[in-house]
């Protein structure tokens, strides 16, 4: 991007970052994993989570950071004057309050456009040490983000699901293609530390 617009603190400059993406309609099991294991990861590592502010996994990732009073970064598919989704405005204020930021590559009053999600997803993938995938369908924005990460030679870490559960079809496909399975917070800490040292 030629220009970034930012509200909040440039937390990506000095903090270790992890990209987190997944379904807009996560299962109960995915929600429980995020509440416990992602929460434990944040308590022990203090990483800054990057996501897209969308309903579901994105917002749950931002909430996980806020519960630990940690900064988080939301990258939007719209200008900062037309925050999308609309209800994210209140969450954005909390993100800023805790030292995080909302970021956009679009003019201030640019509304959301379907094509912007692809651009937004490449930024999410590019800014973390790796990308954590939580529940991806075969055809989804989450898979696009995972593909961007792979093209950037960044690791893709995946929470596995059951083979007969279509909601995890993309996740299992990524694992079959060489992505690394993450079981719990300790796995995630180990992978992030190894990537940060490399």
How are the SSEs ordered, and which strands pair?
Blueprint: E1 5-8, E2 17-22, H1 28-45, E3 48-51, H2 57-67, E4 72-75, H3 88-97, E5 101-104, H4 116-127, E6 131-134, H5 141-151, E7 156-159, H6 169-176, E8 180-181, H7 185-197
Parallel strand pairs: 2-3, 2-6, 3-4, 4-5, 6-7, 7-8
Antiparallel strand pairs: 1-5
Percent strand equals 15-25%
Number of helices: 7
Which regions contain 5 or more consecutive residues with pLDDT less than 50? none
What is the count of β-strands? Answer: 8
Strand order of the largest sheet: 1-5-4-3-2-6-7-8
* Secondary-structure element string: EEHEHEHEHEHEHEH
Please describe the biggest sheet, giving its number of strands, its sense, and whether it closes into a barrel.
8 strands, mixed
- Rg over CA atoms: 15 Å
Structural class: alpha/beta
Helix content: 40-55%
Basic shape: globular
What does this structure look like?
It is a single chain. The protein is α/β, with parallel strands linked by helices. 42% of the residues lie in helices and 16% in strands. The chain has helices at 28-45, 57-67, 88-97, 116-127, 141-151, 169-176, 185-197, and strands at residues 5-8, 17-22, 48-51, 72-75, 101-104, 131-134, 156-159, 180-181. Strands 1-5-4-3-2-6-7-8 form an 8-stranded mixed β-sheet, sandwiched between helices. Helix 1 packs parallel to helix 2, helix 1 crosses helix 7 (185-197) and helix 4 crosses helix 5. The two termini are 26 Å apart.
């Amino acid at each position: 991007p030629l220009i970034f617009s930012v509200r909040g603190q440039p937390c990506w400059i000095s903090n270790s970052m992890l990209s987190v993406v997944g379904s807009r309609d996560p299962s109960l099991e995915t929600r429980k994993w995020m509440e416990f294991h992602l929460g434990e990861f944040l308590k022990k590592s203090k990483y800054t989570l990057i996501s897209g502010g969308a309903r579901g996994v994105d917002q749950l990732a931002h909430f996980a950071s806020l519960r630990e009073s940690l900064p988080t970064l939301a990258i939007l598919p719209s200008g900062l004057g037309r925050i999308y989704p609309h209800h994210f405005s209140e969450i954005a204020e909390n993100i800023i309050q805790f030292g995080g930021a909302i970021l956009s590559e679009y003019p201030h009053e640019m509304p959301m456009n379907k094509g912007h999600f692809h651009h937004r997803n490449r930024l999410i993938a590019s800014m973390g040490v790796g990308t954590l995938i939580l529940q991806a369908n075969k055809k989804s924005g989450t898979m696009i983000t995972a593909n961007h990460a792979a093209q950037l030679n960044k690791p893709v870490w995946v929470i596995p699901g059951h083979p007969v559960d279509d909601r995890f079809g993309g996740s299992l496909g990524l694992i079959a293609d060489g992505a690394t399975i993450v079981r719990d917070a300790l796995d995630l800490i180990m992978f992030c530390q190894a990537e940060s040292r490399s």
